[in-house]
Amino acid sequence: MNIAPHELHWRDAYKLMIGSILPRPIAFVSTIDPYGTPNLAPFSFFTAICAEPLLICFAPMRRGTDGRKKDTLVNIEATGEFVVNIVGERIVEPMNETAAEFDPEVDEFQAAGLTPIPSQVIRPYRVQESAIHMECVLHDILHFGDQPGAGSLVIGKVVLMHISDELYADGKIDMEKLLPIGRMAGHVYTRAVSDTFMLERKK
Question: What's the pTM?
């Protein structure tokens, strides 16, 4: 079957994309607006870029109703700072609570019953219940359209990482203790370490 995405409505193209690019890690992004109101939202278009400098990125899409920017993107454009909190099984339910489209003045930490704790280098709060936090300063933003279905690529430089002591051993993260969650299509998620296998790279 051959499908040309430009011939589809963007929602139909979106369904094919998220049903093909699997599983996707989740960036649980906390920001703060210029007036001090915290914001918290999950994004599954999220990955690493490079290690020197340590850059990560996520891609917030425009709102599907009117093409407006999401509060996370608006806050990052205004302040140049954000935290990526890694999602493990313990916080998947409250994470899902924050996926709703709240009004900008709503504190999603409070709405989801999560605990905000201060960052050390930047202003946005971290999620205490998350086992790993990445404090980021904005490196660059690329915008791709301004209509429903469009999006932006937010690139952040990690200036400080917080890792729970129980996860850290010999400079590595214990995935079995992190219990990361991945996003599939629709309402489906996956436990990332429940069925893993070893495969050594060829030299």
Answer: 0.94
